[in-house]
């Protein structure tokens, strides 16, 4: 009897529904001939829901989502709804309520993907960013005093707890050890004399438990330069919420653009569902035109398969994306092609069907 994996689908705004549809095609294909199957439940939450109801999700939305094994999110944001509302009342609310304190963003230059660095070698751009995802600069702590008056003051407080800082750094060390790769910490300890000095101190403390893992530590400004000039310096990277958010967009530019940028929001203890999403945003200007690139949504589907323990099938999705890129026949306009969103999805599913027919994949994980 197949194991049923219950997935909550929040297509969201703009191009979100279009790319998520193609990702679901891929997930359904990868469940064929396996010991598991997916059960998808759609939720209409997002900015359109906000326009009708004055809120981004149902009042009991978090309780509803607790029943699922994972969440598949399309995109959040649309003109007319302030970004801080669309972000804080849906995406960040889910991340925080479900303690998804690990954000994983792969920066890997696939064969056939465009890269703005003319002399970059494919093997030199292969980074795994592990971003603290629950506190830091995005803790939401602060105040707005004397609003509208000449003495107006705003306070935005970064929150770095020992628990939150140590657990993300330790997770990164465990990942680096498992992959037999180096670990780089990125901070700004010279200027942020409390939060980032503390981060650096905890990194040093935890490193004593992992003498087999080679470590590096860079200031965020230097790291930005090295990502362009010497990307081969970075293998596994751990950094704070804000720095991870910014640097992974830089990394996306190196590895083919936001159309290939995927992210996973993980609760490692699996007490709550984890969430998987493309990170390219809602792109309302091209919504409904069939122009959206679904490859990032497919990559996040691959991350979901990895999370459930089906790494071989997750790897096959990346292999299919890579074959699509090298064929250069079925690509969306952002990748230099003329294909529609659904045509790209259909071609990837076809490639996966061919690969599944040729492969022998054990059911067990």
Blueprint (SSEs and pairs):
Layout: E1 3-12, H1 16-31, E2 36-42, H2 47-53, H3 61-65, E3 70-75, H4 83-97, E4 102-108, E5 126-132, E6 136-145, E7 153-159, H5 162-179, E8 183-187, H6 195-207, E9 215-219, H7 220-229, E10 236-239, H8 241-254, E11 262-266, E12 274-278, H9 295-307, H10 311-327, H11 341-358
Parallel strand pairs: 1-2, 1-3, 3-12, 5-10, 8-9, 8-10
Antiparallel strand pairs: 4-5, 4-11, 6-7, 11-12
Helix pairs in contact: 1-9, 1-11, 5-6, 7-8, 9-10, 10-11
Question: Can you describe this structure?
Answer:
The protein is of the alpha/beta class. It has two domains: 221 residues, Isopropylmalate Dehydrogenase (3-Layer(aba) Sandwich); 139 residues, Isopropylmalate Dehydrogenase (3-Layer(aba) Sandwich), CATH 3.40.718.10. It is 40% helix and 21% strand. The protein is built from eleven helices and twelve strands. The longest helix is centred in the middle third of the chain and has 18 residues. The protein is globular, with a radius of gyration of 20 Å. The two termini are 15 Å apart. Its cofactor is Mg(2+); Mn(2+). Pfam families: Iso_dh.
Brief sketch in words of this structure:
The protein is α/β, with parallel strands linked by helices.
């Amino acid at each position: 009897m197949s194991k049923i994996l219950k997935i909550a689908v929040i297509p969201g705004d703009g191009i979100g529904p279009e790319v998520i549809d193609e990702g679901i095609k891929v997930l359904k294909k990868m469940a064929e001939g396996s010991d598991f199957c997916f059960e998808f439940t759609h939720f209409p939450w997002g900015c359109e829901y906000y326009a009708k109801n004055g809120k981004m999700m149902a009042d009991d939305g978090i309780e509803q989502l607790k029943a699922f094994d994972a969440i598949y999110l399309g995109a959040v944001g649309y003109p007319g709804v302030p970004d801080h509302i669309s972000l804080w009342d849906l995406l960040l609310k889910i991340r925080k309520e479900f303690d998804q304190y690990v954000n994983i963003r792969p920066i890997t230059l696939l064969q056939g993907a465009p890269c703005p660095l003319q002399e970059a070698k494919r093997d030199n751009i292969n980074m795994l960013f592990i971003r603290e995802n629950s506190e830091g600069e995005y803790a939401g702590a602060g105040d707005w005093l004397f609003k509208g008056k000449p003495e107006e003051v705003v306070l935005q407080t970064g929150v770095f707890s020992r628990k939150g800082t140590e657990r993300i750094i330790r997770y990164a060390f465990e990942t680096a050890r498992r992959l037999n790769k180096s670990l780089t910490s990125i901070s700004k300890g010279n200027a942020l004399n409390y939060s980032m000095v503390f981060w650096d101190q905890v990194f040093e403390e935890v490193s004593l438990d992992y003498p087999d893992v080679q470590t590096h530590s860079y200031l965020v400004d230097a790291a930005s330069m090295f990502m362009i000039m010497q990307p081969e310096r970075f293998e596994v990277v751990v950094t704070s919420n804000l720095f991870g958010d910014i640097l992974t967009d830089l990394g996306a530019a190196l590895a083919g653009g936001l159309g290939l940028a995927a992210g996973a929001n993980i609760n490692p203890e699996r007490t709550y569902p984890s969430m998987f999403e493309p990170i390219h945003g809602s792109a309302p200007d091209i919504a409904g035109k069939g122009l959206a690139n679904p490859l990032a949504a497919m990559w996040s589907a691959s991350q979901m398969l990895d999370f459930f323990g089906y790494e071989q099938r997750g790897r096959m999705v990346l292999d299919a994306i890579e074959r699509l890129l090298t064929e250069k026949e079925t690509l969306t306009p952002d990748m230099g092609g003329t294909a529609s969103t659904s045509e790209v999805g259909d071609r990837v599913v076809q490639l996966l069907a061919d690969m599944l027919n040729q492969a022998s994949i054990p059911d067990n994980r």
